[in-house]
Amino acid sequence: MSARKVRNVSIVVTAFYMKIVGFWVANNYVEKRWRNVAMCITIFFVFIAITIEARDLYFVWGDFEDSIFAGCNVITLLLVLVKIFILYINNEELLNVVNYAKTNFWHETNYDTHEKKIIDDYKRLCSFLVCSFTFFAQGTVVCFLITPVFVNNGKNESDRIHPFNMWFDRSLSLSPYYEIIYTIQVLSAYNVGICYHCFDNLLFVINLYTAGQFRILRYRFENICGKNGGNNYHKVSKSSYCMYEYKSFKTCVQQHQALIEYCKKLEDVFSVIVLAQVLLFSLLICLDGYLVLMEDTSRAKRVIFTFHLMGCMCQLLMFTYSCDCLIRDSTNVANAVYNSLWSYLPMDKYGKLLRKDLMFVIMRSRSPCCLTACGFFPVSLETYTGILSVAVSWFMSLKKYEKKLLQYANQSLKGEESRTIFYHHQSSNI
C-alpha cells in the first residue's frame, strides 16, 4: 500500500524552524547550499549574542539582581551553544535519524483501525506540547525585544536603551547606530530563541513517534497467535495457520530490531545534549523563579522570566515524558508477548519454534530502550521530579542567604564610583 503523508502540526512546526537554523534534510544541491548558509548565519548570530551577554555579565558583576539576570541569559546561551556544537558534529547522524523517521514514522502505511488510533493519540499530544513550548520560547524573545519600545517612548535619543546592554558610550543610542545595533540584537535573539526550542521539539516528536511504534508492535505481538478475546482457537490448532503466523512473527521481530537500533542512534546523537539539559535545568528554573518572585524586579523582567520559566517547565516535561514513554512502551512489549495466545499453539514444528522465539523476545524486552544522560542514568519522569526538587532546594538556599549576598555585593561596589555611575545610568532605564 502506498504511503500517505501525515499532516501533523508538530512536524510542520519543527521542520519549519529546523530549516531556518540549517539542520534539516536537503533533497538537492540547492537546498544543501541554502542549508549551509542558514547554519553559518545561525552560528554567527549565536556567537554575537554570547559576546553581548558575557560582556554584560562582566560589567554588572557585583550587583546582585542584575548579575542573576545576566547569568540566567548566559546559561541559556551556553545551553544553545552546546546543542548547536553537538548536532553540528553529529550532523550526518542527525539527518539519518530524521530521514528514517520521515520514511517509517511520519507516513501512514498499512495500519488497521487500532493502530491508527495509537498514532492519532500521539499526534495530538505532540501538536499540543510542541505548540505550547514554541509559544513560551518565542514569547520570551518577543518580551526582550519589545521592552525598549515601551521604555524609550518619550525619551531623548541619547537616553534610549537596547534590548541587551552594550556598555559603550552614548553614541550607540543615536541614529543610525541605534537602529543598526537594535537590528543585530533582534536577529541574534531570534536565532537563539529558535535554537532553544527547535532541537528539543525534534527530540520530543521523534521519541513519541518511536514510542508509538513500540505500542503498535505490542498490539501486533499480542495478536500474533490469533485475536485476543476472540473465538479463534480453532484456527490456531491448524499447522498451516501456525506457519503463517510464524512468518508474521518474523516481520514483527525485524521491526523490533529496527526500533532498538534506531533508539541506539538517538542515544548517540542526543545523549550529551540530554546531560547538559539535566545539569542546567535546575539552575535555570531556580534563577527564573527568583527573578519572578523578587520584590525589586521590574515589571518587564518579571514578564520576560515568567515566559522563560513556563518554557523551561514545559521543555523539561516534554523531553522527560517522551523518554519515559520510550522506556515504558519498549518494556511492555514483553507483557504483550506473554499475553498472546501462545498456549493454544499446536505442538508441531512451527508451534514449538514460535514458543521458543517468543521467549527470546520477552528476554530482550526486559532491557528497555531509553535515552541516558551521556550514559550516567536513564532519563524518565523521575528525572523531572528530581530536577524540580533540586531547583526548589537551590531557590530556598538563595532566599536564605539573600541578605548576605546583597551585603557582599554592596561591599564589592565600593571604590568603583565611575563604573557604578555608568551602570546605574544604563540599568535605571530598564
Write the layout of secondary structure elements.
Elements: E1 4-5, H1 9-21, H2 29-60, H3 64-89, H4 91-104, E2 107-108, H5 113-151, H6 177-222, H7 233-236, H8 239-293, H9 299-338, H10 349-365, H11 381-400, H12 402-413, H13 417-427
Antiparallel strand pairs: 1-2
Helix pairs in contact: 1-5, 1-6, 2-3, 2-6, 3-6, 3-8, 4-8, 5-6, 5-9, 6-8, 6-9, 8-9, 8-10, 8-11, 9-10, 9-11
The end-to-end distance, rounded to whole angstroms, is 61 Å
Q: Please give the largest β-sheet.
A: 2 strands, antiparallel
Overall residue-averaged pLDDT value: 80
CA-based gyration radius = 27 Å
Largest sheet: spatial strand order: 1-2
Question: What does this entry show, briefly?
Answer:
The protein is mainly α and 430 residues long. It has helices at residues 9-21, 29-60, 64-89, 91-104, 113-151, 177-222, 233-236, 239-293, 299-338, 349-365, 381-400, 402-413, 417-427; strands spanning 4-5, 107-108.
